[in-house]
Amino acid sequence: GDSVTQTEGLVTLTEGLPVMLNCTYQTAYSTFLFWYVQHLNEAPKLLLKSSTDNKRTEHQGFHATLHKSSSSFHLQKSSAQLSDSALYYCALSDTGGLSGKLTFGEGTQVTVIS
Amino acid sequence: EAAVTQSPRNKVTVTGGNVTLSCRQTNSHNYMYWYRQDTGHGLRLIHYSYGAGNLQIGDVPDGYKATRTTQEDFFLLLELASPSQTSLYFCASSDVAGGYEQYFGPGTRLTVL
Questions:
Q1: Binning pLDDT at 50, 70 and 90, where does residue B55 land?
Q2: What is the 3-state secondary structure (H, E, C) of chain A?
Q3: Contacts for B62 with CB less than 8 Å, ≥ 6 apart
Q4: Are A88 and A22 in contact (CB under 8 A)?
Q5: I need a surface site. Which of A79, A96, A114, B96 has the fewest CB within 10 A?
Q6: 3-class SS at A105?
Q7: A106 to chain B: which residues are within 8 Å by CB?
Q8: Which of 57-86 (B) contact A at CB < 8 A?
């Protein structure tokens, strides 16, 4: 079945330094990859999505590139801000299988300190 | 913007009690989902549906029933609540356009004493 792996469970960063959160996946079908962000006491909301191989996608200072050859969709930002402290989920959708489900990773809790 | 609402936002019940969590979406989406979120476990899918009257079993269905009465409304039922069901519950909706990008409701915090 489908799977998503986020290798970092907890990340602590200093404000102004770069951010990189890892996401790798396994699927037998064509798919969309997503990054969701969840701030404290809020619902998850979409940060980025992509289905196009080797195309950089950007939003709110974050960017990610889907690499199908390595099954990766890492999230990056050049300079962390205190407001980036949140829980980040990588997810994939089974568009080929048409189940309508998203497979989520376990999440990476990011804390940015000054 | 997509809209998903949930009620109640907070609920406290006792062990063995009956609880119904409600979700409504006004996105005209076919798919709706119920998740629970617990520290250390991320988002776990309980049940989902791709239309009125349809129900699909998710990854952690034990102890939960669900019913999709209309395209807009999806309910999660706990008929004999247990303390292990204390959690934060999210509803979401999606459709095939956009690759099943999910829009989440604000969540319901359930406490079972």
A1: very high
A2: CCEEECCCCEEEEECCCCEEECCEEECCCCCEEEEEEECCCCCCEEEEEECCCCCEEEECCEEEECECCCCECCEEECCCCHHHCEEEEEEEECCCCCCCCEEECCCEEEEEEC
A3: none
A4: no
A5: A114
A6: coil
A7: 41-42
A8: 58
Whether B88 has its CB under 8 Å from any CB of chain A: the answer is: no
Strand A108-113 and strand A10-14: the pairing is parallel
Q: For A10, name the nearest residue in chain B, comparing CA atoms only.
A: B40
**What is the per-residue pLDDT across A88-104, written as a single tens digit (0 to 9) for each?**
999 999 776 667 889 99
Cβ–Cβ gap A104/B106 under 8 Å: no
Listed in sequence order, the residues at least 6 apart from A44 whose beta carbon sits closer than 8 Å to its beta carbon are A36, A37, A38, A87, A89, B43, B90, B104
Closest CA to A36 of A24, A28, A44: A44
On whether any CB of chain A is under 8 Å from the CB of B48, the answer is yes
- Two tokens, residue A113: 């300190």
Q: Measured between CB atoms, does B5 come within 8 Å of chain A?
A: no
The answer to whether the Cβ–Cβ distance between B42 and A106 falls below 8 Å is yes
Determine the residue of chain A that is closest to B6 in CA distance: A43
Question: How many residues are present in chain B?
Answer: 113
What are the tokens at A23? 């996401």
**Distance of alpha carbon A68 from alpha carbon A3, whole angstroms:** 14
Q: What is the pLDDT of residues A69-91, one digit of tens each?
A: 999 999 999 999 999 999 999 99
Is pLDDT above 80 for B66?
Answer: yes
